[in-house]
Amino acid sequence: MMHTHRVAVLGGGSFGTVIANLIAGNGHRVCLWLRNDERVGAINRERENAEYLPGYRLHEKLRATTSLEDAVSAIDILFLAVPSASFREVARRLAGLLSPDTLLVSLTKGIEAPGFHLMSEILAQELPDNPCAVLSGPNLAGEIAAGGIAGAVVASRSDAINSTLHDLLHSERFLIYGSGDMYGVELGGALKNVYAILAGLGDALDFGENTSGLLLTRALSEMSRFAVHSGANPMTFLGLAGVGDLFVTCSSPLSRNYRIGQAIGRGQPLAEVLAEMDQVAEGINTLELLKSQAEQRGVPMPLVNGLYDILHHSRPVSELFSDMMSREQAQDVEFVAG
Ligand SMILES: NC(=O)C1=CN([C@@H]2O[C@H](COP(=O)(O)OP(=O)(O)OC[C@H]3O[C@@H](n4cnc5c(N)ncnc54)[C@H](OP(=O)(O)O)[C@@H]3O)[C@@H](O)[C@H]2O)C=CC1
Ligand SMILES: O=C(CO)COP(=O)(O)O
C-alpha cells in the first residue's frame, strides 16, 4: 500500500503551484501557502491559480491558505518555492513551527546576497535540526502544467531521503532521479539562469545556430568549472540539473531569464525590463553575485564578465566574443571539450 504524506508548499507562484499539484495528483494531501487572501479564496473555489497558471486544473487534494501555521501543521514534508530574495525571511518564520523530522526541500534556483549562500545553506542555518534536500532540472512550469513529460533530480545527503522524494513526486509524466551532490545540483539550477539571459540576447540579435551551439557549450564549461572549483561533482553538470536545465532555459521563450535577454537584445533598457516583470527571474541578481564570487575564487568566467559589461556598462554585444576567443581562454578547457 502507498505511504501517504502530509505536504506543504510555500510560495504559490508558477513552480510552487505545479509541484503542489503534481504531489496532490499522486494522492497526497497538500497545502499551498500564499500571502494573498483573494487568490487563496479563488484557488479553493475555482481550482485554478489564474494569475500564474490560467487554465491549469488543481487537484481536489490541494488546498490553499494564507496561514503559515495552518499550512505547516502536522506535515512531514515541506517544499519552499519562494524567490531567493525572500527565502531566508520565510525560513525564519518557520522556526518553532516544525517538528525536527519534517523534511525541507528547496525548489528555488537562486543565490542569496550577501554571502553567496545557496538555499540549502540558508535552511541549515535557520532550521539546523531539520533534514533537507533540493530539487532541480529542466522544469519550465508552464510546460509541466500543459501536461508535458519532464524529469528532475532530487539531491540530499541520504539515499533514504532521495527515495522518499522519488516516491512522492515520481509519475508517468514526471521522472525523478536521485543524487548525492546537493551542492552541484543546486548550483546548476542557479547558474544556468545567467546563461539563459545571454541566449535570449543572442536570439534577439539573430545569432546563428553555430554561434548558439558555441555559447551553450562554453556556458556549460564555464558553469561546471566554477561549480567544481567550489566542490561540486563534474558529472552533475552532464545530467538534468546541469546541461539538461541549461539547454531548456537557453532555448525557450517560456523561461523568464531568456525573455529578459530577448528584451535587452531588442534594445529595451534593463531597468524597464525588470519593472515590467511580474514573475521572478533570478539570473540578474545571480549574475552580479557570480561575477564577484568568481573573481574572489580566481575562476575565469568570460561569459559572465561579458554579460555583466553588456548589462551594466553598455558594452556592445559584438565585443562579447573578444574575451572568450582570446587565445588563453580558448585553450582553457577543463571539464567540457570546447
Ligand atoms: N517557474 C519555473 O518554471 C521554475 C521556477 N523555479 C524556481 O522557483 C522559484 C520560484 O519561482 P516561481 O514559482 O517561478 O516564481 P513566481 O514569480 O511565479 O512566484 C513566486 C511566488 O513567491 C511568492 N513570494 C515572493 N516573496 C514572498 C514572501 N516574502 N513571502 C511569501 N511569498 C512570497 C510570490 O507571492 P505573490 O504572488 O504574492 O507575489 C509568488 O507566489 C525561483 O527561484 C525559480 O527560479 C524552478 C524551476 C522552474
Ligand atoms: O528554471 C527554470 C526551468 O528549469 C525556469 O526558468 P526561468 O526562471 O528562467 O523561467
TrEMBL record:
It is an enzyme of class 1 (oxidoreductase). The keyword Acyltransferase does not apply. It is found in: Cytoplasm. Substrate binds at K109, R256, N257. NADPH binds at S14, F15, R35, Y52, K109, A141, R256, V280, E282. Residues 7-159 form the Glycerol-3-phosphate dehydrogenase NAD-dependent N-terminal domain. Sn-glycerol 3-phosphate binds at K109, G137, K192, D245, S255, R256, N257. Residues 181-321 form the Glycerol-3-phosphate dehydrogenase NAD-dependent C-terminal domain. Its EC number is 1.1.1.94. Pathway: Membrane lipid metabolism; glycerophospholipid metabolism. Coiled coil: none annotated. InterPro entries: 6-PGluconate_DH-like_C_sf, 6PGD_dom2, G3P_DH_NAD-dep, G3P_DH_NAD-dep_C, G3P_DH_NAD-dep_N, NAD(P)-bd_dom_sf. GO terms for molecular function: glycerol-3-phosphate dehydrogenase (NAD+) activity; glycerol-3-phosphate dehydrogenase (NADP+) activity; NAD binding. The active site is at K192 (proton acceptor). One of its GO terms (biological process) is glycerophospholipid biosynthetic process. Catalyzes the reduction of the glycolytic intermediate dihydroxyacetone phosphate (DHAP) to sn-glycerol 3-phosphate (G3P), the key precursor for phospholipid synthesis. This is Glycerol-3-phosphate dehydrogenase [NAD(P)+]. It comes from Parahaliea aestuarii.
